[in-house]
Amino acid sequence: MRTGEQAGRRSGGPAGRVTPFRISTPDDVLERIRQRLAEFDPAALSRRPGWQSGTDPAALDALTRYWLTGYDWRRHERELNTFEQFIATVDGVKLHVLREPGSGTAPSTVLLLHGWPTSFATFRAVIRGLAHPETAGGDPRDGLTVVVPSLPGYGFSSLAPAPLGARSAGHLFHRLLTEVLGESRYYVHGGDQGAPIAEWMAFDHPDHCAGLHTTLLGVRHDGAPLGSGLTGVEDPSADEAAFVRREHDLNTGPLGAYLLLQVTAPLTLAPALADSPAGFAAWALEKFHLWSDPNANANAAGGGPALTADDIITEMMIYLASGSVASSLVAYSEFLAGPITLPPGRVIEVPSAFAAFPDPRVVTPPASFVARSRNLVRFTEPPRGGHFPALEVPEIFTADLAGFVRQAERASTTT
């Protein structure tokens, strides 16, 4: 069951394909989630402590107890509903979209693409900073119109009628921006699964895409697929050769076990995770724990994780409240179908930036390797933040992305 509220046609919506939307979870859906959580018996778990065998039973027990006794979904629902949201139908896919108009007279547009196990809500702490930099002492003329869709099959977006690879998803979002929203020029950011979608958008639509910003290197140059251990060139540097070896080892080790299961058997996994909020929590909590930067919190003594229980539960609630746990797993496997390298001799031509956050889930590529697949004009290594930088270190993420857009805008006016 997908929950939400659509009321009235948006005036002037292109071809009648756009309707306003707000999250409105029925009470009975929340009660079912609560009941299923309450039925979870942590005593049935092994008492072996720590994360050596997967999710720490004590951490899962603490999270589910807080979920039942202290977490307030309605508060987060109200906060998310302060943003303009709508449903746009593109190629038979009902896309849930959040849009925040930027300050200034002619703000550029930036599309933010999430991955798994996050949702559109992963960007909630950076949207207003990007759109209204004057609220943090910046120049309102640098404001960006921020567009954040839910990926097909995720959250409040429908699953595509037919399997949709990352490249096809890129075409879908390009049509959303240009045909539905009327944007002739845009920037795009992607992390996790959003990265290859963003990269294909930049490759296929250079006349409209003004710049590409990613935190993961998804689509590479010919001969060097992600995780393959191959450099794709005859003259790799020592750093490049070491990078692909380490990346291969990481993805074929225990950290890549979930990926193999989700890609090959999503419908085997889906019923358990969709039926049990505690089971879904165990599956997702492991990733939030292992992939986030343990030293991201600059305000805690000695560092510490920046993600809060509310951050993690809200991400899971987007899936549970929308009924998209199963469809997201299907979409996840389908996004990885199709080409994963660029055509021989081709590169992404638009100005590109790569932010190499200290992400435990990936190996940081050398800038020279990134530049083999794109017109790399900016390579940064932020001091903190892991696989979920918009959640973990929103100020750093905002500064990096906004800084790239300003750099690209200046360069475009001088050429």
Give your account of this protein's structure.
- There is one protein chain.
- The chain is an alpha/beta fold and 415 residues long.
- It has one domain (5-413): Rossmann fold.
- The chain has helices at 27-39, 57-69, 73-80, 127-131, 166-180, 194-204, 238-252, 257-264, 266-275, 277-291, 309-322, 325-335, 367-370, 389-392, 394-413, and strands at residues 5-6, 18-22, 84-90, 93-100, 108-113, 144-149, 186-190, 209-214, 348-355, 374-380.
- Strands 1-2-3-4-6-5-7-8-9-10 form a 10-stranded mixed sheet, sandwiched between helices.
- A hairpin with a 2-residue loop joins strand 3 (84-90) and strand 4.
- The protein is globular, with a radius of gyration of 21 Å.
The fraction of residues assigned to DSSP E strands is 5-15%
Assembly type: single chain
C-alpha-based Rg, rounded: 21 Å
How much is the average pLDDT? Answer: 93
Alpha-carbon distance between the termini? 51 Å
Question: What is the H-and-E element order?
Answer: EEHHHEEEHEHEHEHHHHHHEHEHH
CATH topology: Rossmann fold
Provide the domain count.
1
Q: What is the topology, as strand order, of the major beta sheet?
A: 1-2-3-4-6-5-7-8-9-10
